[in-house]
Design brief:
alpha/beta, Spore Coat Polysaccharide Biosynthesis Protein SpsA, Chain A, Serine Threonine Protein Phosphatase 5, Tetratricopeptide repeat, 10 strands, globular
Length: 340
């Protein structure tokens, strides 16, 4: 773990979720004092090995300082605003040297509680890997080789995106570090993408679009894992700016055909361009996809949008049928009320 003081409630939840699962806990801690902080007391209570390190403005440097102190063969990396919800891993049956866990991110969108899930590499053999990148750091093999991470049955809850004010603070600090990386590394599509995401969080969609387009121009490739997220967030930014026709160029990526999130975005783009039949088809396909990250894209939110289209077109029975498929989704219930 790396710990900044002043996050004691989150830290307490995190440590409580770890107890009984791991053999040791190592934490890199910024010694800068914070009023009312009781981090040291918590770390003592849970028997944490504490490494004091003034914040180096470099997440990889802090991560790697902790890794050097790890004595176990396997290490699980976790942040203070995360906690273990489910854990099932048997070292003796491990076929890979690194594993991805599921992280469930809670966040707010238009004051609505939302959830999205992602796979991130957080479990690996401590002697074989290190971190690189001063922010949005990546797990890298020490020998420079490529590696394949397996999928572990571990679920982390994450509440770091719930507080909008905290998100904005993180966004600003991340962007400063990302711009520093850009100066050091030159044009890098992944860094441009991450800068775009900071603007997106701040709802500065014009700047987000500019950075997304820089990422594309500097060589972002659909073979890279992050590019699907790039395309989706780029699309939402264009829609937020009313650039509906420009967004149509993003509807032809067949490599993401099995993603409910991508199909859902395509539905919104088509809907905003008055291609209503095609939009209903895209939303329907979203409910049949094999994978989904954002809750509702593969179910109630997709059916709700089909209902909206049919209601606007005066097809009330079809609209009612779609709203009913959306179950207890509140906007759909309101749609049923309107139809009465």
């Amino acid at each position: 773990m790396i710990i900044k003081r002043g996050e004691c409630e989150n830290l307490k939840r995190c440590l409580a979720s770890i107890r009984g699962i791991v053999s040791e806990i190592t934490a890199v801690v910024d010694p800068s004092p914070v009023d009312g902080d009781f981090t040291d007391e918590l770390l003592f209570e849970y028997g944490v090995k504490e490494i004091l390190l003034p914040w180096p403005e470099d997440y990889s440097a802090a991560r790697n300082a902790g890794l050097k102190a790890v004595t176990s063969e396997w290490v699980l990396v976790i942040d203070t605003d995360e906690y273990i919800k489910a854990f099932d891993f048997d070292e003796s049956r491990a076929e890979q040297n690194a594993y991805r866990v599921i992280r469930e991110n809670q966040y707010l969108s238009e004051d609505n509680a939302m959830l999205n899930t992602e796979r991130i590499t957080r479990l690996f053999r401590s002697r074989l890997f290190e971190y690189k990148g001063i922010v949005h750091e990546q797990v890298t093999a020490k020998d420079g080789s490529d590696y394949t991470a397996g999928d572990a049955d571990i679920i982390l809850g994450h509440t770091g995106y719930v507080d909008p004010e905290q998100m904005l603070k993180k966004s600003v600090s991340y962007r400063a570090l990302l711009n520093k990386m850009l100066e050091e590394n030159g044009d890098d599509p992944y860094i441009h993408f991450q800068i775009a995401r900071t603007y997106y969080v701040e709802k500065n969609y014009a700047e987000a679009v500019t950075s997304f387009e820089k990422a594309i121009a500097s060589g972002a490739d659909t073979k890279d894992g992050y590019v699907e997220s790039l395309i989706e967030t780029y699309g939402y930014s264009l829609l937020a700016l009313g650039r509906n026709k420009d967004a149509m160029a993003l509807t032809g990526f067949d490599e993401y055909a099995d993603s409910a999130d991508y199909r859902f975005l395509c539905g919104l783009i088509l809907m905003n361009n008055a291609c209503f039949d095609e939009a209903v088809s895209s939303f329907t396909l979203a409910t049949k996809c094999s994978r989904s990250s954002v809750a509702g894209c593969d179910s109630y939110a997709a059916w709700y949008n089909c209902g909206v289209i049919c209601e606007v077109l005066g097809e009330k029975e079809k609209a009612r049928s779609y709203y009913e498929r959306a179950g207890s989704y509140e906007p759909a219930l309101k749609g049923l009320e309107r139809l009465k």
